[in-house]
Amino acid sequence: RNMSSAGPEGRKKMRECEGLIDSLVYYIQGAIADHEPNDKATENCVCILHNLSYQLEIELPESYAQSIYMQRRNISSNDKTPGCFGTRSRKVKEKQQDTPLPEEKSNPKGVESLWHSTLIRIYLSLIAKSTRNYTQEASLGALQNLTAGTGPMPFAVARTVVQKANGLPSIRAMLHVSHPAVKKTAVSLLRNLSRNTSLQSDIAREVLPDLVSILPDRVPGSDIACETTASICYTLFNLTQSSSHNARLLLSAHGLPKVITISMNDSNMFSKASRAASVLLYSLWSHTDLHSAYKK
């Protein structure tokens, strides 16, 4: 567990070590099957996998990177619709965002397991069944790592979490735990998921009211609570930016007074949360059809 957090070279060596990742996954599967999601060894295994999934898309061996990105290149080259900005038009961007990963292997080995739907479901199962904070945080953190980039892998993992594995209810429950680090990681994961435009309506329907409910009435005092508040605001920004319906949801959940209060605190210590709230307010105001409702 300590070695897996020793930097990129350490992660690379451990990912390449034959049988290591498979053994960790095998152990966790056994623990879940035996209804033992809270033992210390399971926590250690999940923390190692969490660390090995960090920067995974950037650090993947060339052979994997080529197989993942080749399909994406082929699809985008077939969709070169001329626009003001050539092939970088919004349609092509959205098309790339929805490009699936190459078909999953039914029996993944080694590094392939790190982004496979089997392990994604294991993380979601541990989030739901474990009461150990470090295990919950590491499971959420592994999913956060896997959804952090902008390539096809993060978007495919996000789609698995939200639509194929029905993971939102388990993640939503973590928004209401008392442990600040678990809550912060759950919000960070939702922020990553909410960047995927094809998932935004599902996410808004499932968790937008919960996100508003955990927004503080004023800027929080601690650093971690401040970061969590900023992340909530950016998640709400993603969900409401191009959806008047979701902006109305935020309004009906009584989120506006909270966002205004947070945005007005310009102390340096809390500027991250205040800036995020200001960005969200600016975006909400762009929905001109809601101006009269805002004013009320």
UniProtKB/TrEMBL annotation:
| UniProt record, GO biological process | cell-cell adhesion; desmosome organization; heart development; intermediate filament bundle assembly; protein localization to plasma membrane
Report the subcellular localization: Cell junction
Tell me which GO cellular component terms the UniProt record holds: adherens junction; cytoplasm; intercalated disc; nucleus; plasma membrane
Q: Where is this region: Disordered?
A: 79-109
Sorted keywords for this record are: Cell adhesion, Cell junction, Repeat
Comp. bias intervals (Basic and acidic residues): 94-107
What family is this? Belongs to the beta-catenin family.
Indicate what this protein is called per its UniProt record: PKP2 protein
Q: Recite the lineage of the species.
A: Eukaryota, Metazoa, Chordata, Craniata, Vertebrata
